[in-house]
Design a protein that fits this description.
157 residues, alpha+beta, four-stranded mixed sheet, 7 helices, binds zinc ion
Length: 157
């Protein structure tokens, strides 16, 4: 099951590769939070519809209801997808970049396993991977203090 989602993640990112934009454009705005090299290896795509795994796959892992809510953004590995309405929202960019760092730290399979487990166990609002992203994006929006995101992601195990 996990493998099928992993395959879907890779094929989705490939499919949109021609349209992805580099997050290097945020290197000044997010300075101190994310290293330039990390931003240069992270991408986003503005899409009219957030790409979602096939419904049958989500049902099999009991997450059929998850994506019925309207998502403004979704991170898949090193790339995140945003609706046009979120494209200029720095807080959402920041939030999704925290997820890119989490994907990188945990690996694709590891991230998926953990995200799905946490979601089932805690629910979206209380799951640790989301709380971390929301706490950090709130801190960014509040104007600091500036913290490096990567070490925080690493000690979250
Ligand atoms: Zn999130």
């Amino acid at each position: 099951m996990q493998h099928e989602i992993t395959a879907w993640v890779h094929s989705t990112n490939q499919q949109f590769e021609a349209h992805h934009l580099s997050c290097s454009e945020f290197k000044e705005l997010f300075a101190g939070y994310f290293p330039e090299e990390f931003l240069a290896r992270s991408f986003y795509v503005v899409v009219d519809q957030i790409p979602l795994p096939p419904k049958e796959l989500l049902k099999e892992i009991n997450l059929g209801g998850l994506f019925e809510q309207q998502l403004a953004g979704l991170t898949l590995g090193d790339t995140y997808y945003l609706l046009p309405s979120a494209a200029d929202n720095l807080r959402i960019h920041f939030h999704e970049l925290v997820h890119v760092a989490q994907w990188q730290h945990l690996g694709v399979e590891g991230f998926l396993a953990r995200y799905i487990n946490e979601l089932k166990r805690y629910g979206y609002d209380d799951m640790p991977l989301e709380r971390m992203a929301y706490e950090l994006d709130a801190q960014f929006v509040a104007g600091g203090p500036v913290v490096e995101v990567w070490p925080i992601v690493q000690v979250s195990d």
